Structure formats: structure tokens, C-alpha cells
Predict the structure.
Amino acid sequence: MWAAAERVLHQNWRQGHREVDGVPYAFTCPATPRYRHQWYWDSCFHAIAWRHLDPARARAELQTLVRAGRLDGFIPHTAFWVTPAYWRRAPFYGTHTVFGATATSTIQTPLIALAWELVAAASSDDPGFARAGLPQLRLHYDWLERERDPDGDGLLTIIHPDESGLDDSPKYDEVFGWMRHFRPGYFWLVERCRRLSYDAAAIVERYEEHVEDVLVNVFYALSLRALARLDPDRGAVYATRAQRTEAALLARCYDERTGLFFDLAGRSERQVRVSTWSSLAPLALSSMPDDVRVRLVEDHLLHPRRYLVRCGIPSVALEEPSFKAGFALWKCWRGPSWVNTAWLLAAPLRELGYDDEAERIVRSLLIAADRHGLREYYNPISGHGLAARAFGFSTLLIDLLAQSGVAMREPSAVRRMI
Ligand code: GLC
């Protein structure tokens, strides 16, 4: 697995200078030929895997991601380093112009501070890395708080389903309606955001299609906690913000009846009652009450009609009518198991004493990856590998191995194998 992960990360590594302005870049693209650019959350996951193999590359990947952003602290969902995005990509990507954009104007689940802390911990060869990132990380998390929490309740809002990374998740079906993925209105949703300059406050004021997303906010809170630990001067500010977000998740998104966390949609902030892995994500927040976390595990994660499957953790509960285990073109978050889900939830499972269950989930993905390669996602029922091959963030499996105490082989032995 270590050798396979190293092979994928090397194969997908891209390094050079942007043609339009000579800005240097170094990042891992998720998979060729389909995903050739730099994606925000993919890059964070890549860096978390790279830190075990080559911490300098992990650092370069995160620094490139920051460089893709703006001076005001915005960091894009996708950066087009190699070739700018023109009108042909405009209907699909949230760019501000159709005449050549170097990045989108949309965001993606903002976990860079969490990744930064993990990479810094593996950077004994560059002890200044943790502090060097602080000015930009502060700007980024301050931008998110200022621009993406228009009602000031501590929960970030997304204005497009892709902004969570869970593009076609059934939890967005009802919210975005005819503008969701694979519907003609999708292009209008992108165009509408463009016309309003991706200004979340303006969009929230005029329209109903926006979400305070549980997964986005769980990663936001985890990242604020990481930033609080990294920042010796403003740490208390970020810790307070994390607390606010966690409290808002519990007070507003938790549904006592089902024991799940649901997104809040539209101006009325109605709970979207669809059970997806996002509903389980608050398990990763150690500030959540133990009984709430245990219920997520016992009533859902380990429930045979919900999330207990042969391979990994499915992206949607089995009993949801929208659940679909196998491959459907472009549809990816409607059932299949992804490695980043197990990555988020294995550690809290162990923390709560479910060591065997965490081990079983990780092992099932290792077996699937061994048989079918590091694929984009896996059929949760059969374990078959699906969609893209040599997929970058499935290399998170080596981080999961490291967490299980399985050390990396001698690097030289790995190199001989590849
Ligand atoms: C798909 C996934 C998204 C990911 C992107 C690049 O759009 O839904 O989560 O960031 O591919 O891998």
C-alpha cells in the first residue's frame, strides 16, 4: 500500500510556472485525465499523505494552494495552473469570467489549517513552517467568517453544492431542485453566482438555494481548532470561533428524533432530513456530548440497515431511497464509499473505544484498494473499485495505516518496489 500510494502521488505530481504570470506551482492533481487541476480539499488530503513520504512536497502542495488564493484571504475551490479556464468550462466551474480564469470564485470545504498542522508536525526538517503559514491562514479563516457567515450564527454557508466537495449528494436534491447536478438549471445556478460576484450575502438575501452545510462546518471547526493551536497570538480568538461553530451545529443541526445532524437550507433554515455521511461527521468533534456521539455510532454507523457495509462507510445510508451502490456516470456521492470518510471517522471511533470497528473499516478499504487499486471510490456492498484510477486522496490510506501503528517500510525498499 505504501508503494502504491507513493506511485500515485509521484505520478500525479505537477510542478512548473503558470504561463500567464510565471507564478510557481507544485501540487498533486487528483487523477488524469479527468481531474488535471488543483482542488482545495484534495490538495489538503494529498499533503496529509505526502507528509509520510516527502514532507517537502506536502509543504509545497499547501503553499501552492495558498498562492492560488487572493490577498483578501479567499482560497479557491479549483486552481487552473496549467491552462486557464475559458468559456467551455464556464458552465461547470464557478469562475468569475469566461475569458480565461486562473481559479474558481467558489470555495471548497476549508480544511487547510488542519492539514497545515498535520504537515507541520511532520516537518522536523523545516521547523519554521508552522509559523510561516500564519498570516495567510488567519486571512483565510477571517475571510470565511466575514464573507461566508452572512447571518453571523457561526455556521458557514455554501452557495453551490460543489462547495462542500459532495457535488451530487442527495442531500442537495430538494434544496437546489432543478438547479442541482445533472439538471439544466445547474448552468443557471453557476451563472447566477457569477452575476452576483459570488457574494454570499447578496445571494442569501435574494435566493433560497444555499445551505449551512454540516460537513463543511465540521471541517471548519476542526480547522479553527488547529489554527488556535498553531497561533500563539490570536489562538484564543480561533478557539472561541470553533466553540461557536460546534455549539451552533449541536443547537441547530442536531435532530434529537433521529440522532443525526442535518444541513440547514434556505432563508428559513429548515433541516434537510436526508441521512448522508455528512450527518455523521460531527462524530469527529470531541466537544460533542458523548451520548450524541455514541448514538451516531450505535444507531447509524454500526446499524446494518444504515451504514454497516462490507467496504468502508457508504456516502448515503442504505435505507435512503436515493442510495445507489454502483457506478453511475458523474454520480459519486449517492452511495459509494470514499477513503476520506473513513479517514475522518476512524480516529473518533477509536477515541470512543470502538477500536475493532475502526480497524474493520480501514481493513476493508485496504483490501478493496489492494484488489482494485487506489480508485476514486468503492462499491460499499461488493468492494469493487469505481471511477477514476490512481486517485490522489485515496492515498489517505497510508495515513490510516500510520494511525493503526503500521509503520512505513524503509523508503529505499519502497523505491525498489516502484
Ligand atoms: C469530484 C468530487 C470532489 C473532488 C473533485 C476532484 O468533483 O466530487 O469532491 O474534489 O472531484 O477530485
The pocket of alpha-D-glucopyranose is lined by residues 30, 35, 39, 41-42, 165, 167, 332 (CB under 6 Å). The radius of gyration is 20 Å. DSSP finds 17 helices and 14 strands in the chain.
